[in-house]
Structures are given as C-alpha cells and as structure tokens.
Amino acid sequence: MIQVEECAEVTAELVEAFAQLIPQLSASSAAPTAAELEEMLGSGASHLLVAREDAGPILGCMTLVVFRIPTGVRAWIEDVVVDSGARGKGVGEALNSAALELAAGLGARTVDLTSRPSREAANRLYRRLGFVQRETNVYRFQRKG
Fold first, then answer.
1. Start and end of every N-acetyltransferase domain (predicted)?
2. Is residue 44 in a domain?
C-alpha cells in the first residue's frame, strides 16, 4: 500500500531520494541540496510530499505550493516525479490525491499544474483525477547569462 507524507524535516534519506529522482524529471536541473530543501520546508508556501510503499524507500515526490493572492487562495502542483521502477503502481495517483486534499484543507478552491504532452501516462492520470485542460497561454521569462 502506498503512503504519502508531508516532509517536516530534511533527512539524509530525503536528500538521497532527490538525488535519485530529480534526474528522472529533468536532465537540466540539479538535485536540491539539503540547504535548499530546508529553505523549501521553511517557506510556509511549499509543501513537500513523498510517497513510499509500506515502510520502504521513497518512491516519488511532489511539491504543492499554496499562496494567497487578491482573488483567493491558489495552489500549484510542481515537480511530480515517480521513480522509474515504481511507475504504474499508483504512486503518482496517491501523491496527487494527497496534494488535492491538503490544498482543500488550506483553503484552495482550485489546484493548477502543467504537464508536457509527451508525458502521456501523467496526462491520463490528471484527467482521471478530475483535472481539466485550460485554454490559456503559458509564458516563461528566462534571464540570459
């Protein structure tokens, strides 16, 4: 059975899990350091969720970011990654379901996320969980240098 927990502290296990998982998510991003994970956990807006089977190793993780803006409380799911050896076992579904429940408990009426079209299994999961594709433009500004 897959259990999801919100991280309350940075441990060696957590740092190692990110070292294994982040390269499976992004070839261009380095895994966060212990100090960066501490910063995330201390921000108040970032909620780091991890999933494991029984008392086993961390199989996946995600970040739920919840923040207030003038029109209400908003939530975003970011950096969802499940270890390649654990895919298809319900880890992603457990992580997303826990994030949706946590977001609702924190007052968010909606939860947004983005997913590349090439991530077909993830996109099927999001639709199955009730996410609806929005008609919007996503823009990114990137500093040079």
1. 5-145
2. yes
- By residue range, what is the domain housing residue 98? 2-128
Instruction: Tell whether 145 is covered by a domain.
Output: no
Whether 59 and 51 have beta carbons less than 8 Å apart is answered as yes
Q: Tens of pLDDT along 38-90?
A: 999 999 999 999 999 998 999 999 999 999 999 999 999 999 999 999 999 99
**Concatenated DSSP letters for 47-69?**
EEEEEEETTS-EEEEEEEEEEEE
Residue 135 lies in a domain: no
pTM for this one?
A: 0.93
**DSSP β-bridge partners for residue 110:** 74
| Strand 110-112 relative to strand 72-82, pairing | parallel
Distances (CA, A) of 98 to 32, 43, 56, 63: 23, 20, 18, 11
Total of domains in the chain: 1
Copy the structure tokens of residue 104: 């609702």
CATH code of 19's domain: 3.40.630.30
Selected residue with higher pLDDT from 49 and 119: 49
Q: Is position 122 within any domain?
A: yes
